[in-house]
Amino acid sequence: xxxxxxxxxxxxxxxxxxxxxxxxxxxxxxxxxxxxxxxxxxxxxxxxxxxxxxxxxxxxxxxxxxxxxxxxxxxxxxxxxxxxxxxxxxxxxxx
Length: 95
Description:
Oligomer: single chain
Strand content: under 5%
Mean pLDDT: 88
Largest sheet: none
Helix content: 55-70%
Radius of gyration: 15 Å
Order of helices and strands: HHHH
Number of domains: 1
Number of helices: 4
Low-confidence stretches: none
Distance between the termini: 39 Å
Structural class: mainly alpha
């Protein structure tokens, strides 16, 4: 089995999304008081997708670009629960 951990996270994709989208962001910044990581993970994925794809254009048939398809494949490898758990932990430590 190959170890895919990266900088203390379960994989590179999780580390990078957390670093570039959620680093320094609090639950309050997201206008949520959700502290259940299982429920928060879905919200975080939606939030990240909205940021990543804001301003993207679709062709005349409503299809996305190849670049967007690769971004979606990258996003599918993110461990959203791990990021949610990390944010909840930081939130409870601040309280």
